[in-house]
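re: the backbone from monday

yeah here it is again, tokenized this time
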């Protein structure tokens, strides 16, 4: 897996990151106005070879989920924790804890499907929208300012695990603005390994800069990128529309979802 395909101009980016690090602008969850956001000009791309109802679909989330009683993600590392957790999809919300950096965890604690849509994807498996939901999902704490370190060291093992499960498509769900960059790099690495991806996005500028192969954008909120908590119909619409774009998209692109417009009409009518 070539780092060049994941992070273009990696050496130049490292120089900019080193200068930013000297400024030491990192304050809590804010990287500051001088942070060197990744800018990629091209994106790797692998066409989907199977229809959605035949795919083994996997989930990668950057909400920082980890099993209760296990080691949390390390928020003390200046450049971010580049590790991941492999979690069975049968695990319930009562078994999960959250390393929520860069976003407010209130929504995901109320309804984990707002960021980790396991219940919605199980429904999709049950009604034949997807072939099957992969038996494990992968969790990252997406607040990783050191994008070069993540691209060089944090992704190799993740891609190997995805391939070992014979995954045929991957849905990536960011939680914060910086998560959009982190998961864009993850999507690029997975796609470089030959597996089609789809990334949800609520920050269009971030994905247009980092360039994941496929992104589905709508003006949602950080911390509930799949949809507001305890609103399953809305979550289904977001996911259904995004996933159905995997097969027809024939080149790297960011597509707008129409779900937001339909939802606004319902809210105006008081239908929620």
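seq for it, each position gets an aa:
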């Amino acid at each position: 897996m070539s780092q060049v395909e994941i992070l273009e101009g990696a050496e130049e980016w490292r120089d900019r990151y080193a200068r930013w690090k000297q400024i030491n602008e990192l304050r809590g969850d804010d990287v500051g106005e001088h942070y060197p956001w990744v800018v990629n000009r091209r994106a790797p791309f692998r066409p989907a070879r199977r229809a959605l109802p035949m795919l083994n679909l996997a989930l990668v989330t950057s909400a920082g989920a980890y099993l209760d009683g296990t080691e949390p993600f390390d928020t003390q590392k200046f450049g971010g924790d580049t590790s991941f957790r492999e979690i069975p999809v049968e695990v319930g919300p009562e078994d999960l804890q959250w390393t929520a950096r860069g976003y407010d965890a209130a929504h995901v604690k109320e309804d984990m499907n707002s960021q980790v849509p396991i219940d919605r994807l199980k429904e999709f498996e049950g009604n034949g929208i997807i072939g099957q939901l992969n038996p494990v999902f992968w969790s990252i704490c997406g607040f990783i300012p050191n994008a070069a370190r993540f691209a060089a060291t944090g992704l190799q093992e993740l891609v190997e695990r995805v391939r070992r499960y014979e995954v045929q498509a991957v849905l990536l769900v960011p939680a914060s603005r910086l998560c959009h960059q982190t998961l864009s790099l993850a999507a690029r690495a997975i796609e470089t390994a030959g597996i089609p991806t789809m990334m949800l996005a609520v920050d269009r500028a971030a994905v247009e800069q980092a360039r994941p192969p496929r992104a589905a954008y709508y003006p949602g909120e950080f911390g509930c990128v799949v949809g507001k908590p305890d609103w399953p119909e809305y979550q289904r619409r977001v996911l259904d529309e995004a996933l159905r774009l995997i097969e027809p998209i024939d080149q790297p692109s960011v597509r707008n979802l129409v779900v937001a417009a339909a939802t606004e009409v319902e809210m105006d009518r008081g239908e929620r």
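The chain is about 35% helix and 15% strand. The longest helix spans residues 177-192.
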